[in-house]
Design brief:
about 375 residues; alpha+beta; Beta-lactamase; 2 domains; 8-stranded antiparallel β-sheet; two-stranded antiparallel ribbon
Amino acid sequence: MSYLSFTDIKPESKVVEPEPKEWVMDESLVIYLEEFERDFEVGLNEKQIPGAAVAIVKDGRVVLQKGFGVKERGTSEEVDEHTVFRLGSVSKGFASVLTGLMVEEGAVSWDGPVSHYLPEFKSNDPGQTDRVQIRHLLSHTSGLPRHAYTNLVENGLSLDRIIPRLEQVPLISKEGEQLAYQNAAYSTIEKVLEAQTNTDFNTLLEEKLLDPLAMDHSSASYDSIRYSGNTALPHVYHSRSRGRVPMPISEKYYNAVSSGGINASASDMGKWLLLLTGHYPDVISEKTLEEIYDPFVTIHNRRYSRHWDGVNESHYGMGWRVLDNHGQKIVYHGGYVNGYRSEIAFAPEEGVGICILINTHSSYPLTVIPDFFNHFKSNSSEFISK
């Protein structure tokens, strides 16, 4: 397995830039962003969050990328837009987009049986083994129970050792019928892509996504974040100190990169949001993105929609949650790993998106994001293009 490094951008890599256009930022957007920054910083202080970084995009432009607070509580070293955080399960969206690229290149098909590409993948029912498709893996609808063998991922076992064990797990539904969130099964996509391309997953990630987008501060290894030189340390709440204290960065989930092993900065997540909102057509087509975001299975509880007023259910596409905010389609995902919390959300039809990275566990980003989208829902024109 090869690992990514912040300095390993290959000289021959083609950096793709979004198509430029003349534009001026409307004064109302300038005022809103200033208010957003002030309110966001107040919230960070109230919630005792040591450090954070935010990226906001609108109509093909990054309109805000900024760091807040400190990398480590008790120090004065400030977070900036290039400070690296762990993304946790926000990594899943990278895996689905990368798979979409491989679909475009003909290496795999959304409807292709997983066992056809990877014979080691078997379910408890031989018939279901033959029917589970790539889209079932990426939508958590393979029929496996929730978090099947996530404990083995967290214990550091390799995917090569975990995947054959999935056959031992009793199924809870037929494929495609029920969402049951996965990490081990989801990460099987890494081995599928490796088998079809003869290239390891981290290299595919680098060559197909990180390099073309010039995501210079992103990586997928423990060593990369540990030695980046500009890293926000994770924090946990400690009752005796009555506050959040720093902790070491964990190696967990770097054995399952597609489920929780990607590291990135706010400046890189701004570029990622531009791709997700259709502004890198030379990297991935809008048609493929639409298929990835297409709601595949309904989530019949309010765990993920409860922060959105009047939204009582959500859906899952491939690597992304999807909800209808009273006519406004929101695509999003959250992540938590090792004292880091990340949230990313965008409205593809309106070309607006936001990513919030913090270096502790807090639901604060979930309260910020709905208000953000409600603002743009009621103020649809924030740019004047020439």
